[in-house]
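sorry to bug you again but im stuck and you know this stuff better than me. below you get a single protein, a line of residues and a line of whole numbers that encode the local backbone shape. mainly i need to know what kind of three dimensional shape the backbone takes. anything you notice is useful, everything is just below:

***
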Amino acid sequence: MPTDEITAAAAGTWTLGDRTVRRMGFGSMRITADPDPARAVALLRRAVELGVNHIDTAAFYVSPGGTLRVGTGPARYATELIRAALAPYPRDLVITTKVGFGYDREAGFTEAFTPAQLRAQVEENLRRLGRDHLDVVNLRLGRGPGEVPLTERFGALADLRAAGLIRHLGLSNVRPGQLDEVAGIAPVVCVQNNYGVDAYREQDDVVQLCGERGIAFVPFFALAGTGREAGASAAQGEAVEAVARAHGVTGHQVRLAWTLHQGPHVLAIPGTADPHHLEQNIAAGALRLTPEDLTRLDTP
């Protein structure tokens, strides 16, 4: 698929809270792996040039160590790279971050439960991004019930929203019933869960529920699938590859197009450290799959 002149606008838009974002965004986790921060800065600026106005990040996206567990040298935080590349920020740019998880180079990953711990993570994001407020903050939940009820943790973030430090709230790694638990505390504008054409399809019900409630569904690892931080395996699914050949595109572009076809409320945040892959990912927003393509992709 030619990528010339294809911008993020090709994917359409969604209203995230009170902000209009293009449905093809950018995930910043992988930009920390490059030991040369100048390349990450250039990549972020190129993403914005191509129309991206929704960037996903977290203060625990850091290398060496961090979620990718790679690299050497001084710490490279995705949030600080975003600030170096884009501040002063474009007026239409929406930066979504997450709290609930944190990363310390000595202690490793930590989970925040108390209001003080959550506030400290919010303030870290503010400091590293150079902002006086955060556009969207997702509370990232662990696999277990946690030491503190969800309503208390979400309520602590709602208090920070009322204080003006946060504009909108979301949830990550959430089950359908948990949306009901927090419904009376503050609006949820987005849900971030694992999801892809051939991985985590138990999330189909969550995607549908979010659509019914006007909540953005923002899948992570839509390209990597069960490979998660390690990335996708070399072998693509047979159906994905067949559809890719029919359209003259890559398997990754088919995966992104399939993601966007799941509903107008579904946003894509593919991440990469490669400028060519960035352009391919954004161009996938212009790929229109046929009903036959979708049936083939959804057939086990």
